[in-house]
Here is the input.
Amino acid sequence: MAKGGARAICLISGGVDSSVAALLLKEQGIEVIGLNFVLPFEEVFKINSETGASRIAVEIGIELRVKTMDDEYVRILRNPPHGYGSQVNPCIDCHIYMLRTARCLMQEENARFVATGEVLGQRPMSQRADALKLIERESGLEGYLLRPLSALLLEPTVTEMEGVVDRSKLLGIKGRSRKEILAIARSKNLKNFASPAGGCLFTDPAFAKRVRDLIDHNSLGLPELRRLAIGRHLRLPGKSKLIVGRNEKENGLLARVVEPEECLLRTSDVPGPTAILAGRHAQDEVRLAAAIVARYSDASMDQSVRIEVRTSQTSCELITTPLPEDRVSELVI
Ligand code: SF4
Here is the structure.
């Protein structure tokens, strides 16, 4: 029997694994505080909106805390001590980072342990038995990190040995298939979890190219990461970076995330995109950026287009014609 009234911090992604893990603890009478992390490139889409994690927290009936990543996460992404996965996903260090944050919350909230929805062997990099151990050790949670879905295949935690959690009610699942976990979720009538995903955008080859480009140009920071999933990204010959919105939603987002020292470009006389020019503002780069913006506007290839170029201090208008497609595609990251 679990001792009632204990409190735990449980990482909640919004997926089925962490949802079932949290529910298993709640059913034992543990007070669960969910902790959800928003990756930098998700912030503009997720902050202050309903997410998979917030929906599942309501459904299970637990409190949810939401954390964004700080500069430490960017340092990890630039040079992860335990390396990258298939692309630029620093999965082991990413887990350690999240669990260190969870450990701080555990101390602040006087919780007894931290739990996750990790499953032994489900992910090649971060969920091998040795990786699970390493993550537990380096996050400073030795003995206090419970993985309820695979607990029966792992050494008992202090929490289980002290009877804070009833080990006999935990599971012994391993491997990549989610069939068993989905069946448990169905049997418990859980509905609002997100469908299983392979990984975050850091595992996506096209997105990874954008991250590597920032690393190569020594300009990987939180502001750059926050907008990396918005628009088309182009690297211009003078090394400045152009981000061009692909639709109205992205145009609005780019206007929100532009930094004071950057240029915001917009078509004045035909419908067209909003774009951010970051880096050098030399005349030739600004003119090239304007011609690219014109290319993605509704103007025909021989039409003159007026482009408004604004910084926080100045504003001017350029007249240009669209850059030919083959020249634009050479610059796309
Ligand atoms: S897939 Fe992304 S969010 Fe998940 S551990 Fe890896 S880097 Fe972190």
